[in-house]
């Protein structure tokens, strides 16, 4: 839920707009059943032979590698994060100033907030 959509404008290239071409639920269900039966047969063979096969091991290795790569990335501070931090700082400073100095700071903070929103909308 976005309270103020004009404060968090998403660029067009980052919007999610995917239209699937074709989806067959019966074929999807059949593929899932076939994959499940193959896994069960492989598990039976492993029990009979006593040696594990390498089926399915690549998937866990790949997911573990991707998880570790995702965990080692450094967090990036983008423009949106900076704008939100400035906005929270401005609003917090306005509340603090209102408590300390009275209504004049509240009016100045309101004008500053309106100016900030106007600039954000104008830049688009």
Task: Provide a quick synopsis of the model.
With 124 residues, the chain is an all-alpha fold.
3D structure, described in words:
With 124 residues, the protein is an all-alpha fold. It folds into 2 domains: 25-72; 77-123. Helices cover 69% and strands 0% of the residues. The chain has 4 helices and no strands. The protein has helices spanning 25-49, 57-72, 79-101, 103-123. α3 runs antiparallel to α4 (103-123). It is elongated. The mean pLDDT is 77.
Q: Any key phrases for this structure?
A:
124 residues; mainly alpha
Low-confidence stretches: none
- N/C terminus separation: 21 Å
Radius of gyration: 28 Å
User: What is the ordering of alpha helices and beta strands?
Assistant: HHHH
Strand content: under 5%
Quickly give the structural class.
mainly alpha
User: In DSSP terms, counting alpha (H) and pi (I) runs of 4 or more, how many helices?
Assistant: 4
What is the topology?
Blueprint lengths: L24 H25 L7 H16 L6 H23 L1 H21 L1
């Amino acid at each position: 839920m976005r309270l103020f959509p004009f404060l968090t404008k998403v660029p067009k290239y980052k919007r999610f707009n995917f239209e699937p071409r074709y989806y067959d639920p019966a074929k999807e269900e059949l593929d899932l059943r076939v994959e499940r039966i193959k896994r069960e047969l492989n598990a039976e063979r492993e029990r009979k032979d006593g040696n594990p096969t390498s089926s399915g091991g690549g998937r866990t290795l790949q997911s573990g590698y991707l998880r570790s790569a995702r965990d080692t990335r450094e967090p990036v501070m983008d423009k949106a994060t900076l704008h939100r931090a400035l906005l929270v700082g401005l609003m917090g400073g306005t509340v603090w100033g209102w408590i300390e100095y009275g209504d004049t700071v509240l009016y100045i903070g309101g004008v500053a907030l309106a100016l900030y929103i106007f600039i954000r909308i104008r830049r688009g």
